[in-house]
Amino acid sequence: MTIEVRVPTLGESVTEATVATWFKKPGDTVTEDEMLCELETDKVTVEVPSPASGKLAEIVAQEGDTVGVDALLASIAEEGNAGPEETKVKESVSAQKTEDDAEYAEEISGKGGETVDIMVPTLGESVTEATVSTWFKSEGDNVAQDEILCELETDKVSVEVPAPAAGTLGKITAQEGETIEAGGKLGEMTSGGAAPAKKSGDAPKSDAKPTGDGQKDVENAPSANKLMAEKNISADQVTGTGRDGRIMKEDVLNAISAPKAAPSAPAAPRAPVPADDAAREERVKMTRLRQTIAKRLKDSQNTAAMLTTYNEVDMTEVMALRKEYKDLFEKKHGVRLGFMSFFTKACCHALKEVPEVNAEIDGTDIVYKNFVHMGVAAGTPTGLVVPVIRDADSMSFAEIEKAIAEKGKRARDGKLSMSEMQGGTFTISNGGVYGSLMSSPILNPPQSGILGMHKIQERPMAINGQVVIRPMMYLALSYDHRIVDGKGAVTFLVRVKEALEDPRRLLMDL
Predict the structure, then answer these.
(1) 481 given a catalytic annotation
(2) Active site residue 373
(3) Residue 71 in contact with residue 61, Cβ under 8 Å?
(4) Is the domain defined by 291-508 classed in CATH 3.30.559.10?
(5) Of the CATH numbers 3.40.50.620, 3.30.750.24, 2.60.40.420, 2.40.50.100, which one belongs to the domain with range 98-214?
(6) Catalytic one among 155, 485, 502, 509?
């Protein structure tokens, strides 16, 4: 049987890639998940693993060819049809199974229960791996169907893995702290019956290759090794972003193009800490989510030409309107009338007039969005997340309030899916709920604009020649100056201000 090797999903808005390097040649024996080739897109380098064990029969796309998503790269003659030589290899690998594992499998099969694999669930678009954060069950524990077995951490959200059937947890193959690919195996369980208890002296065995800190020898991508040799760069000078710190060709290119630091510029090591202070410190490894937040925010500063413009809005009319109708609104729609729906509506209104704030840069193109997918930044115990309210420009006040309330609750509970945090075109961040009086929000790439709301504070204002006390709020719009000019940014903020100071303008589309 012949297995096709095809171009995997390359990520949002990426439609093609170039074949950079083939690590195997026709006739070579390959094992499942072994890296066959490396693709380069305009954003990242993608490794293509073997979908099955066997022999590489034919390479269709040669090095340097440009291929689209799902295009045929090569074909593999599956193990069973590859001939006597491969059969010997298979038998040799099988012979290396330890006696303990054989006994364990024998015991499980003797109980009459069916062995069920516990697999990594779908992690979402562009997410290819996760780290095993916590196992809630131990080997030998009885579990009910859909009972949560473990929790995985990706660079975006935490994912719970439920039991695929009722029975007993058998062998855990991916330990806490290990990184495992989407669709990978986490462990085994026996449906019905009860699995044998492991001997107390036995350490859990894993068929998975060692990862993380236990992986001492991480083989870099061949294309990366070749480029480092050509440029006379050592691996110590390159930060690997591949799995387990593997150095990719893109990492070498980044190291080459990075500006040379002055001799005095290297990051200084942490200053020595007195012993009595060190004893009272606590060192905690950053979660993948926190690492991703840090990386994305720094990338945003490094990539966009970010500026911030400010204005202030008199909240008198919005507060009066809310006070007058909030009880009737809640009674009819079953949700509280807050300020976020007013700001969302005002922003959607302003984005129609200044569409570049709702656009993004793709290479040398500007992509204008004829819709508004509004990101609403929300603080959670694990970090900042930005759930997206899709087509907010076509929603009513009640629909917006319901969507924000529902997604906010799911964000705090850690239940948001990846798809609910992707595709935003503009973002609103309300630092005022924490008491912030003024701040400069940072862009959420690839978006070109983000509005910062702040604390409502009574201040003396000069109105019609008289000093009066008014509830005022500072507004801050951070924007990408590469596509948004100062005039457009100021116009956007003025339109938001006008709509909030006279909410009737929203009804009249003025």
Answers:
(1) yes
(2) no
(3) yes
(4) yes
(5) 2.40.50.100
(6) 485
